[in-house]
Amino acid sequence: MAGLGPEDVEVLHAAARAIRDHSPAQAERLLGKILARHPTHAEALRLLAILHLNTRRGALAIQTLQAAISHHPGDALLQCDLGNAHAACGDHAGAINAWEHACVLAPDQVTAWFNLGRAHQQQGESRAAINALQQACALAPDLLPAKILLGDALVHIGRFEDATQQYRDAVRLHPTCGDAWRGLSSIKTVALSDADALLLSTQLQRRDTADSDRIAMGHALGKLQEDRGCYPQAHAALVAANALQRKLTPWRVQDFTDYIEQVLVMTSELPAPIDPELGREAIFIVGLPRSGSTLFEQILAAHPDVEGAGELPDLGNVIQRESRRRQMPFPAWIQQVDAADWHRLGLEYLERTARWRSSKSCFVDKMPENWKLAGVLRAMLPGATVIESRRDPLETAWSCFKQQFYNQPHFACDVGDIAAYLHGCERAMDQWRARDPEHLHLHRYEDLLAGPETGIRTLLADCGLEFDPACLDFHAANRSVRTASAAQVRQPLRGDTARSPHYGALLDPFRHALGLPAS
Hints:
CATH class of the domain at 272-392 and 436-499: Alpha Beta
Largest sheet: 5 strands, parallel
Distance between the termini: 71 Å
Strand content: under 5%
CATH topology of the domain at 272-392 and 436-499: Rossmann fold
Order of helices and strands: HHHHHHHHHHHHHHHEHEHHEHEHHEHHH
CATH superfamily of the domain at 272-392 and 436-499: P-loop containing nucleotide triphosphate hydrolases
């Protein structure tokens, strides 16, 4: 508020309250009064930029903040908000640059370090994320979101003991912190204890536990009880957690089945590609979650010519952006697109993912739900390889039910929804593979376990890669793994991963929905 008189200070406070209370017209009027008298005031311009962001005028927010910074180049808070504006506009590089600048200007500013760490984590840059988040935690030891994100980043690079410490600290601060319990239970190499079981059960009985925490804690308790061999108790905890999640965010199976019908018809005929080799540096791994996709990626990423990029949102983002441009949802516009349009979209995807090819010739995009877009790849990225991972349907279904997914609504909260999703995925992929057998390949998790070297050689050949013995020792690869299987893929292959037999008749509803015989 430096440089403002008492009346102007009160007007600026009123403008901030108007932004908070979602009254943009009032906020803009009040800020206009201040800026008419103090056109370069840092806080007035910052609030104006926040108002622009709240009203979805990201480019104007960036312009406003840059103007403010030209008058106040040493203002770390302006730089921090500039990072927020760049991030809102999808400019991750610009956001990271602004937050790094803010950290230099004000090394004791927690928000800048936290935002920088979160941005690096979202970009898959786990080590850079750890450096920034450690600074945030040192400055604010009680900041739960920073502890959780730091724990997640440590898991991704295999530092499980350090990650456990972060999650444990979070639980000590807040015993019902669902994210901390989720993190602890995801480290499959470190079992939860009897004391954890008692604490989880006690906290779940509290009436003031938030639903989001209750769901995460229920999943953690289910995992803990399964590890202890208490299968009825594990089943009950997971059923309760998923029932609550489905009540809060129901998944619409009819919308999904309608999508499958439409996309199969729309992709039956596509124009011949302008460049049949476009995208040959890309390897997509698709299929259901918990079907072994992370394992297949880890094997490929052990190859000296391959970069494992993890679950990239870029393919979906390119399609969504085209849908907004055409003002109609995908897949309704597929048959309006010519070869030049598909070529343009393919180039856009390759440009967005170029950083994953800075040191290696190929990269793996392991976003499981990219299977929904696999039907257009023969026109958009005709040279790309698609690996579909499949696992025993009952194991896949039960593993999905046990996993807490953060993108909601999600099919994994209900037995019938899981079966519909699994059958829809397999039906669509079977048809698309028949249309493009040269580039779409099916690999089964159980086949890999039964014959690791044979399976690995076949996988590499399907991706156009020469065999390399490093792929046999995939568990030793030093890379960031940003999925629920981060701990598992750092261990040698095991043949005893099936869990469904332990539950017997408790899983008969799954068997019935999947069309399998009862136990």
